[in-house]
Amino acid sequence: MADTSDAGADDALYVLTAALLTPAQFPSLLGDDYPAACAVLGLEPCARGYGLVLGQDGEGARWTVVVDDVSLVAVAVAAWDCGMEYDLSPDDRSMVHALPGWPLAVGVAAAGLAAPHDPAPDPEAAGLGRTLLTPPDTESWGPAQRRLGADEIAQRWTSWREQLDDEATTAPDTADGAGSEDSPRAGTAEASAPRPGTGEEGPDATRLPPSPPTASPPAGSAPVVSHPGLRRALAEARGYLDAPPPPGRIRSSFAAGDARMLRVDGPGWSLVARTDDMAFVLLDDEPGEVLPVGRGTELPGLLAALDTIAVRPA
Hints:
5-stranded antiparallel β-sheet; 7 helices; 4-stranded antiparallel β-sheet
């Protein structure tokens, strides 16, 4: 793919993978919502969105090229997800910005080039806000890892759902009275969050099989506890119905049957749920812990209402 001189000595970028950056679909590690994700990359959060093209220049350095040809990137990502080959070569005129580094972990490299490495600092770019992009550290826990953990649960919903029996998931949940300061309760499972991954492999990439959860909930009903962080997360999620959050805080995607998969984020928490089932919540304050929320009586209505204001892929 042709590029500007910013992206390498031979003015070419060898594409490895790509991702969408739109209100309905963006790398969660970048932020809790679409405007926040754009801010990390120094972009204006336009309604149409962007495509992120990750590759190496002629010297092997990592670069992320932002393009405004969203449809082209969407077709490429869909083709790669189906195991098909697709030559992603956006036109030079579609390029918006070239940023050093990669915001996502990429497990492949361009053949015939030096191993992926950070490009040398550009003295002429000093003060232009071009911060080197790096993927988050998977050995620590914070907002990015919490969001990536929720993404993993959404991708492997069946595996996580099968850890809880029907009795556990009908335990009282914090959605009952989540909008008040009473003491609604939820079951919690001692299951560790999955290691976050990008899920954004490109052509010729080998998708690693997901590792099973490192622990399982105890047999029988999950313990009924009162968790203030869980109460706060569900109360803030319910508050979105009265004061809609920035685009991308609530995203709805396809799920089997007539259900939808919801991803809802807020300051310090992430929720993933199926509209016909239960929910899981991850908190910044609970490193590696996954808190299941039983369906109960209030959660179905909350999920249905959130789905009506969620953004959906075009």
